Amino acid sequence: MSARSKARKRALDMLYIADVRQVPIAEVLGDEARRASSWPYAEQIVRGVDEARIEIDALIEQHAVGWTLARMPVVDRAILRMATWELRDNPEIPTAVAIAEAMELASVLSTDDSAPFVNGVLGAIAEDVRA
User: Fold this and answer.
1) What does the angle CA 126 – CA 57 – CA 114 come to, to the nearest 5 degrees?
2) Containing domain of residue 124, as a range?
């Protein structure tokens, strides 16, 4: 597993923890910073999602036809936020990589329907933000 793949997994863990516990991202990042296993890219993702949360959530809801963020499984929401940040704010990550990594996480960590759902939403977002 590449360093960025590990960082994405760590970022997903932190976004998931913040959402489930309903605590600020800064608190989760503080906890993570005290651990030796923190990856700088994971922190970059989490801070980026936190800083652009309103815009990221709006993009997700705009492209998740028939779904609100509140209806999505927490892990799917975190995956979509993370990958949307990468698509929107990190041009050095190829579109296919951001989407494939998100689909992999969804297939391993969420429901059977999550990977195709994540793929569809992120594909539509990528058309908007990377066109």
Assistant:
1) 65
2) 3-129
8-state DSSP, 31: H
Smallest CA-to-CA distance from 83 within 104, 63, 98 is with: 98
Compute the mean pLDDT over every residue in the chain, rounded to the nearest whole number: 91
Looking up residue 14, the CATH number of its domain turns out to be 1.10.940.10
For residue 37, name the pLDDT band (cuts at 50, 70, 90).
Answer: low
Q: Total structural domains in the chain?
A: 1
